[in-house]
Design goal:
6-stranded mixed beta sheet; 4-stranded antiparallel beta sheet; 12 helices; binds zinc ion
């Protein structure tokens, strides 16, 4: 057992974590066997079971544990008080998983964890039960007595949008206050290269209604001078991008991503872009994906092709999703988009825009001693390879929620995934070698946190 008054050197923790991994792996497999799908149509008792299993893992490390439920799926809160004068860290992961999809798409059963070629396959083996186990491993590495206070928060409904998280943070947030918050649900850059996720795009979603006619009329009698709503709508949608394919809405925030290696071949491979179809827009792909706005039409209400007749359609609707730069204010972005749509209404068509959903992005202040301590921990865990700063093009609601609730904490978005993880897909898997490094990095961070906070 580690004594609180001495700080073990990294090589000690490296050996300690290595020795712990078989046990950590066994516990990860046990968690993965629980089919804790949080979607409403799945048996909720499994999510209760996984909450209880996580609670027990934390109790075993000496944490004071409670399972909280605020109208949604159960979350687990564990707390270990800080030694006198020491800082506190909060560790986040989630114990619910995505539905497995069809069994036939899996090479081995989704809830029967199976190792192949150094990877552990199973639904949740990575996302995010490995995140849960990384936190447990870091606690174990310190013999249950880390040199800082540790709160663990393991959510039970991340995969369905974290609906009750705001209420949980409102009612229990004081138990999670910390100097640093590790949100372990993202990805590393690639095998051998760790990453900190320092930005997430925000999003807004709107519904656009276009009306041109009081009622539908014969296209032969009136087609020509009289505009139909569907043609007007498609022209309006077309105005959202310029000829190069960049977003044409004026005034939106736009930035540049870190200069990392990400070529067109990889983009094509990962997205499944068909041969001959060109990429759109200008600038680096990572900037396009992480730090610049993007607009996609995700649905249209119009007569279905099979039942369409020769009439001018009087009204049509579209749903449009806009990803916004990490630092963009969603409401400001919405105002700009709405103004663009009103201004570009073809032929004076009546355009109505309503806000359907919005979510703030995340733009970490990725500097300061805690970030420095985190980077050195990753670097040591990866044998000298420094972590890179990456972005995520999508939103992760809980990251923005934690950033808003704890504005003074250093927010570190880490994770166990790599480009081959296939989280949410069939044959999800965890790279076991990288997983050990994740566990070690977190154990090192716990060790280094007191020094990092004392220089602030
Ligand atoms: Zn996740």
């Amino acid at each position: 057992m580690t004594d609180n008054t001495t700080s073990p050197d990294p090589s000690d923790l490296t050996a300690t974590v290595r020795a712990l991994m078989p046990g950590v792996r066994a516990d990860l497999e046990a968690l993965t066997r629980i089919p804790s799908v949080s979607l409403d149509s799945f048996d909720p008792s499994h999510v209760d079971d996984s909450a209880e299993a996580v609670a027990q893992l934390l109790r075993d490390e000496g944490l004071e544990v409670e399972i909280v439920r605020e109208g949604g799926r159960p979350a687990v809160i564990g707390r270990l008080a800080a030694p006198e004068g020491a800082p506190t860290i909060t560790l986040y992961a989630h114990h619910d998983v995505q539905p497995p999809g069809q069994d036939k798409d899996w090479d081995t059963p989704p809830f029967e964890p199976t190792e192949r070629d150094g990877r552990l396959y199973g639904r949740g083996a990575a996302d995010d039960k490995a995140g849960v186990m990384a936190h447990v491993a870091a606690l174990r590495a310190h013999g249950g007595r880390p040199p800082c206070g540790v709160n663990v928060f393991v959510e039970g409904e991340e995969e369905v949008g974290s609906d009750s998280l705001a209420t949980i943070l409102e009612r229990h947030g004081d138990k999670l206050a910390a100097d640093a918050i590790v949100l372990a649900d993202s990805s590393n850059w690639k095998i051998g290269v760790p990453a900190l996720t320092t930005s997430l795009r925000g999003m807004i979603r709107v519904v656009i209604s276009v009306r041109t006619l009081d009622h539908s009329v014969h296209s032969g009698m009136f087609g020509g001078p009289v505009p139909d709503a569907l043609t007007a709508l498609t022209r309006l949608l077309a105005s959202l991008h310029d000829e190069k394919g960049d977003v044409a809405v004026a005034g939106l925030v736009s930035g540049d991503a870190a200069d990392l290696d990400f070529d067109e071949a990889r983009l094509r491979e990962e997205s499944g872009l068909l041969d001959g179809v060109q990429v759109m827009g200008t600038g680096s792909f990572l900037s396009q994906l992480w730090t610049r706005p993007a607009i996609t039409t995700i649905g249209i209400d119009a007569p279905a092709v099979d039942v369409a007749s020769n009439t001018l359609v009087p009204s049509a609707r579209a749903k449009v999703s806009m990803r916004i730069a990490p630092s963009e204010d969603p409401r400001a972005a919405y105002d700009l988009l709405r103004a663009h749509l009103q201004e570009h209404a073809p032929w004076g068509a009546r355009v109505e825009v309503t806000l359907d959903d919005e979510g703030a992005g995340f733009d970490a202040d990725a500097d300061g001693p805690i970030y420095t301590a985190a980077r050195s921990s990753f670097q040591d865990a990866w044998d000298g390879t420094e972590p890179v700063d990456i972005g995520v093009g999508g939103s992760i609601p809980f990251v923005a929620a934690f950033a808003e609730k704890f504005p003074d904490a250093a927010i570190l978005v880490t994770g166990v995934e790599d480009p081959d993880t296939r989280a949410h897909g069939a044959n999800e898997s965890l790279h076991l070698g990288e997983f050990e490094r994740v566990c070690l990095a977190e154990a090192l961070l716990l060790q280094r946190l007191p020094d990092a906070t004392s220089v602030e």
